[in-house]
Amino acid sequence: MKNVKYIELKNQWDYEEDDSEANGQLSFSAKIVLIQLILLVFFILFVLFFQGTLNLRKSVKSENTRLPEWNKSSSIKRVSRFQDNYFTKYESRYLNCTEFINGNQGAIDSYVISGKLRLHKDKLLGLQMDCDSIKNRLFGDLPPFKHLKRSIAFVRNIYQLYELQEAFLSMIYHPSHFYCYAIDLKSDERLKKSMRVLSNCLDNIIVLDKEYDFDRSGHKQDEAHFDCSKRILEKNWSHAITLQNFDLIIKTPEQLSDLSELLNETSIMGSDHALTDRYDTNADWTPVGMMLFKNESEVPDEILHKKLVVRKSLNEVVLSKVFVLSMFEKLNLNMVIKRFDNESLFGVDEMMVMTLYENYLGLDGQVEVDFTDSREDELTRFTDWQFNQPDGPNAECKSHWLRHSICVLGVEYLQEISKSPMVIANKVLETFDFGTVICTREMMNDNKTGRSPDADWLSKRFPQFRGMRVKVNS
Ligand SMILES: *[C@@H]1O[C@H](CO)[C@@H](O)[C@H](O)[C@H]1NC(C)=O
Ligand SMILES: *[C@@H]1O[C@H](CO)[C@@H](O)[C@H](O)[C@H]1NC(C)=O
Ligand SMILES: *[C@@H]1O[C@H](CO)[C@@H](O)[C@H](O)[C@H]1NC(C)=O
Ligand SMILES: *[C@@H]1O[C@H](CO)[C@@H](O)[C@H](O)[C@H]1NC(C)=O
Ligand SMILES: *[C@@H]1O[C@H](CO)[C@@H](O)[C@H](O)[C@H]1NC(C)=O
Ligand SMILES: *[C@@H]1O[C@H](CO)[C@@H](O)[C@H](O)[C@H]1NC(C)=O
Ligand SMILES: *[C@@H]1O[C@H](CO)[C@@H](O)[C@H](O)[C@H]1NC(C)=O
């Protein structure tokens, strides 16, 4: 059943559906062409006379010429603000990103008390899914894209609501970056179908045909990330960032490109000792015992027979292209993926990449440095942890809500996010507070994101960064 809200909106935007093929119909009949020509002339005159007072939208692509707020003239919904794609003006009346980012508690309280912006899958506005509409939502309100020095591959495993993924993409979309998605097979048809429609509109967006049985224990996460990486391996990116469904990128596409240039061949991840109940401690962990290398004859004995120390960090990592290429070229990745993806264990998706990177295997992009200490990754993921407490209301969280020991990021965190050096924040929930997503996008467009780290900052925190600099300069 369509609820009241949906009907209201449908009426309001009915014109879009009537005219969804407006451009294509031109050739059907000379009469229509004539009428449209007259309208066009009329329209041009109108624009010339009233240009100053019209709210001109920024052009998306050359074919999408600058059109004013002209209700019947285009299939593209004309919204004045990004949030209008997903919420009514009434729902977003208390959203004031500038004030939230500045930490104005009064503004935050008004918004929170009014119920926040939340998306539920049975209460959505409905989106036009033709390519023009999609592109318009993604970047129609943004300035023209700047040239990037390096390209990033965003590799994301998803399972829930299309709107959240579209909004995430709208923050980091750039024609030079690459986006690969792996979908949970238990997701609903709406997500699956919408993602595939989206990927058909833009060349640099890929959705894997294969679907995965993700679960809370992290099963199939590594496999999906590596399948995606493999799929886009030939593309010209310099770093891949692995992501999960609720990860919010908090740096702009330009900042990430600059970071990739600074990192050069270094990968970024934390290093910790793995918990012994999360992997099979009795298995043979020597590369030879694991049949890790495709061709053992070129691997030194001291590598082949040295037991790997199983390492742990987070699912989110920043991987250099040379390292990823080298893993695919030299290792039997399928076997090591299976080794970690043990059905009877929990938290299996935070060990494999670290173990392969932090044990020296002679791969490209690796350096022989000391990873035996526990080091937190201070660059990849911002998280407000509250351990050993139940999910739900939580006084320690600024947003007062906890999920899996992590505070859900409401708009209360925006000021902190805007000062953070991190690349990703975890986690936002669209059902809890979509305002965080909308305001982080605004933060990016207003150049109010946290500063990107410089080489000194990275050197202090990441032994692999120091090691790589020594290697390159020697
Ligand atoms: C477009 O619609 C708005 C309200 O929906 C109305 O105020 C405005 O006059 C319309 N513009 C044109 C050009 O029809
Ligand atoms: C946000 O709040 C400031 C200060 O109260 C106000 O000037 C501004 O117009 C508000 N912006 C929005 C979008 O409501
Ligand atoms: C690939 O990207 C690098 C920058 O990261 C650039 O220097 C190079 O020219 C690109 N190669 C191709 C074939 O586009
Ligand atoms: C990046 O890495 C390559 C390969 O190791 C090296 O030749 C180059 O000098 C490095 N660039 C910088 C700026 O360190
Ligand atoms: C999974 O881990 C358990 C416990 O460590 C171990 O007994 C079992 O052999 C492992 N299964 C596989 C398929 O490796
Ligand atoms: C394995 O590596 C050795 C030494 O580099 C090479 O001679 C041999 O042809 C390789 N074997 C295969 C199957 O690629
Ligand atoms: C963004 O702000 C920083 C300083 O905070 C400045 O160095 C940079 O040039 C600004 N970028 C843009 C695109 O305005």
From TrEMBL:
Subcellular location: Membrane
Bilayer disposition of the protein: Single-pass type II membrane protein
Key words of the record: Glycoprotein, Glycosyltransferase, Membrane, Transferase, Transmembrane, Transmembrane helix
PANTHER family: GLYCOSYLATION RELATED (PTHR46671:SF2), PROTEIN CBG11221 (PTHR46671)
Any one GO MF annotation of this record: glycosyltransferase activity
Chief place where the protein resides: membrane
Protein name per Swiss-Prot or TrEMBL: Protein CBG24500
Pfam family membership, one: Branch
GO cellular component: membrane
Residue ranges of the TM segments: 28-50
Superkingdom of origin organism: Eukaryota
Keyword Transmembrane helix attached: yes
